[in-house]
Amino acid sequence: MDVYPGIETTHLFGVLQQAIKDRHPRRLENEFNYPGGDRGYFELSIEPVPEGLFILSIDITERRLAEQELRRSTERRRFLVDIVENAQQPLAVAYSDGHIGVFNRAFCELTGYDPEELKESDWNETLTPPEWRQIEAEALGEAARGGKPVRYEKEYLRKDGTRVPIELLVHAIKDESGEIRYYYAFVTDITRRRRK
After folding, report:
1. What are the residues whose beta carbons fall under 8 Å from the beta carbon of 188, sequence distance 6 or more?
2. Mapping DSSP to helix (H, G, I), strand (E, B) and coil, where does residue 159 land?
3. Tell me: the pLDDT tens digits for 38-55?
């Protein structure tokens, strides 16, 4: 009780009495209060021995806090993935070698390709008409050099052979050595704007 102040003892003593009674080992996690009011966690390994109980106590606060942080981080990641996946704004992540890594449903709808086809495609060859490739290369170079997002217009070749005018807002993401890891782009269908 001195080591782990503020713990709820009724359950703990019940577990200890049951271990003495049935002579089966137990494992128990519980909370306690550090001086100053911070919450801590400990784990007890309870092993019946002829003289009574052998109890090994380990402070697992750091592990529990890390698990909680991981859980919060995972929930946040799932939340963001859900937002991106269900957004009406097309979004895609592309790599310098031409493959498309991540994209949402809206991007599939815009291009007319299903997810498996997009994963197998080359964004430069499959989606970009030849006359737009140089313009796009220059825009991506600017994004890579400047470190700021670049906005530009081009067209996509859809699966059915039609073209759709788009505006891209492209961000270049670099690794620690300054090499491009990938580009991510928010894509806007500007067909209505072009008709005006």
Report:
1. 89, 90, 166, 167, 168, 169
2. coil
3. 788 888 898 989 888 898
- Provide the pLDDT confidence category of residue 3 given band limits of 50, 70 and 90: low
How many Å apart are CA 187 and CA 181, to the nearest integer? 19
Q: Which two tokens stand for residue 172?
A: 């270049």
Which range among 64-73, 78-87, 138-147 has the greatest average pLDDT? 64-73
- Here the tokens at position 194 are 């072009």
pLDDT of 51 reads 86
What superfamily does domain 87-195 belong to in CATH? PAS domain (3.30.450.20)
pLDDT at 178: 86
Q: What are phi and psi of 70, to 5 degrees?
A: -60, -40
CATH number for the region 9-65 comes to: 3.30.450.20
Q: How many residues does the chain have?
A: 196
What CA–CA distances, in Å, run from 35 to 5, 32, 183? 8, 10, 49
Report strand pairing: 100-103 vs 150-157: unpaired
As a whole number of angstroms, the distance between CA 43 and CA 52 comes to: 19
Do residues 20 and 12 touch, judged by C-beta distance below 8 A? no
- Which tens digits make up the pLDDT trace of 127-146? 999 999 999 999 999 998 88
Within the chain, all domains assigned CATH 3.30.450.20 are found at 9-65, 87-195
